[in-house]
């Protein structure tokens, strides 16, 4: 079905060949696998009484040409702390894949299955090398743990493979910056904290390289995190101490591969990060706040030969100080970038700004601009960003699949339109009193 998509919405992901001998040769371009520009984000699927509708939505997404599925060991729509919640999303993804293959809707080689690890199962003893996710009392129980220790990595990947019923193509470390959050709480100097972070990452990468050698992981690994150009850290602060530097991660991966006798042949392939109309640092950079982040990580990652997968295209963190109408921090923890009745102030303003920006200087929109839903504008903006291979969208309902299918049939926005739209949203936020210090 990807042949029915607009051609520019079929992208390439840098992949090593499947199987144990998957490391690229130094200087040789990695192979490419085509992926749709929208991927299925399986964040709140699996478990709970809505599991049948989640399964139906994923099956529908596969039929319309979506072939990248992203899940995590701790994703679930079930009750927090329930015995079946850990791995519930992976189990549902595995079921959907098996059913779709049996029905002839897809073949396994045409899918890219990504999962993530780091969050320990609730209620279990702390794994090796664990840190509490919200240290020093922020309403967290001390049984909420995060780890990227090699022993934990190995055990989690093997468990994920069982739940998925197939080797994942990619395994990503899920927000390893939680270690930095714990270090910051302990007032460890940033240089020392970063050095220890990358030392730990190097050990984790060695474990992932070994799992690739064994064939437990089919193609490679990566990191899902809040990199230096992302405005907010994983704990919601202005991002600096808790951030990761993408180019340093690639160097760490090369070192891990070299220690395993694979000089230049690392399998670090994917960086996943948040990107939407409001949180646009991965495209625009944030050099005013962090000089080293003047260049967005979407552009940097593409230059480094990585596949860039973005998330949260329709859910933005509120900007501090913006308090006109429902732009403030009261109420919802995210601004939902989609049409609804009645339209809130934040959605109405964002939609007006985006429509104006996208049509400025000769920019063209497909169809009647007044009838384009905000979610189509926001999703298309993210997937159109330079360097992006695919944008993950939470499609746990059929209506969300229909939105994604509609956008995938349209030509992406131009790079000029993307930069103009994201810049104008920043300007609007500043005019409404955004406290941009530390953000951009």
Describe this structure in words.
With about 450 residues, the protein is α/β, with parallel strands linked by helices. The chain has helices at about 50-65, 90-100, 150-165, 180-185, 190-215, 245-260, 280-285, 295-305, 345-360, 375-385, 400-410, 415-430, and strands at about 10-15, 30-35, 40, 70, 110-115, 130, 145, 170-175, 220-225, 270-275, 305-310, 315, 335, 390-395. The protein is built from 12 helices and 14 strands. Helix 1 (about 50-65) packs across helix 2, helix 4 runs antiparallel to helix 5 (about 190-215) and helix 10 (about 375-385) packs across helix 11. The two termini are about 40 Å apart.
What labels would you give this structure?
440 residues; alpha/beta; eight-stranded parallel β-barrel; 14% strand
Cα-based radius of gyration, to the nearest Å: 21 Å
The number of helical segments is 12
Question: How are the strands of the largest sheet arranged?
Answer: 3-4-5-8-9-10-11-14
H-E order: EEEHEHEEEHEHHEHEHHEEEHHEHH
Shape: globular
User: What number is the mean pLDDT?
Assistant: 90
**Uncertain runs with pLDDT below 50, 5 residues or more?**
17-29, 135-140, 326-330
Provide the structure class.
Answer: alpha/beta
Estimate the strand proportion. 5-15%
Total beta-strand segments: 14
Largest sheet: 8 strands, parallel, barrel
Helicity range: 25-40%
Distance between the termini: 40 Å
């Amino acid at each position: 079905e990807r042949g029915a998509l607009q051609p520019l919405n079929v992208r390439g992901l840098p992949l090593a060949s499947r199987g144990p001998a998957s490391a690229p040769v130094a200087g040789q371009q990695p192979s490419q696998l085509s992926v749709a520009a929208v991927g299925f984000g399986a964040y709140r699927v699996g478990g709970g009484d809505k599991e049948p509708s989640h399964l139906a939505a994923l099956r529908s997404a596969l039929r319309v040409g979506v072939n990248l599925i992203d899940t995590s060991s701790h994703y679930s729509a079930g009750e927090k702390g329930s015995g079946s919640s850990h791995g519930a999303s992976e189990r549902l993804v595995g079921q959907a894949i098996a059913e779709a293959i049996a029905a002839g809707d897809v073949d396994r080689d045409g899918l890219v299955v990504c999962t993530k690890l780091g969050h320990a199962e609730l209620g279990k003893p702390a794994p090796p090398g664990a840190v509490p996710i919200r240290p020093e009392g922020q309403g967290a129980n001390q049984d909420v743990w995060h780890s990227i220790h090699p022993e934990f990595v190995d055990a989690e990947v093997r468990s994920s493979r069982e739940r998925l019923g197939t080797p994942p193509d990619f395994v990503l470390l899920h927000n390893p910056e939680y270690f930095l959050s714990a270090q910051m709480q302990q007032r460890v100097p940033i240089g020392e904290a970063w050095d220890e972070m990358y030392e730990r990452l190097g050990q984790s990468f060695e474990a992932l390289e070994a799992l690739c050698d064994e064939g437990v992981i089919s193609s490679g690994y990566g990191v899902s995190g809040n990199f230096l150009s992302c405005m907010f850290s994983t704990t919601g602060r202005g991002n600096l101490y808790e951030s990761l530097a993408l180019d340093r991660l690639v160097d760490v991966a090369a070192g891990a591969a070299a220690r395993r006798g694979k000089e230049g042949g690392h399998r670090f392939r994917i960086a996943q990060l948040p990107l939407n109309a409001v949180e646009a640092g991965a495209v625009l950079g944030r050099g005013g706040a962090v000089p080293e982040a003047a260049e967005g990580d979407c552009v940097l990652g593409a230059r480094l030969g990585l596949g860039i997968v973005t998330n949260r295209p329709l859910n933005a963190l509120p900007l501090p100080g913006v308090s006109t109408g429902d732009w403030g921090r009261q109420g919802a923890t995210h601004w939902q970038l989609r049409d609804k009745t009645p339209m809130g102030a934040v959605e109405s303003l964002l939609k007006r700004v985006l429509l104006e920006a996208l049509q400025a200087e000769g920019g063209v929109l497909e169809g009647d601009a007044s009838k384009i839903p905000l979610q189509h504008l926001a999703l298309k903006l993210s997937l159109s960003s330079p360097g992006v291979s695919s944008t993950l969208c939470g499609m746990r309902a059929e209506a969300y699949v229909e939105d994604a299918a509609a956008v995938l049939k349209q030509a992406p926005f131009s790079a000029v339109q993307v930069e103009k739209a994201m810049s104008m949203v920043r300007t609007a936020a500043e005019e409404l009193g955004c406290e941009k210090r530390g953000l951009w």
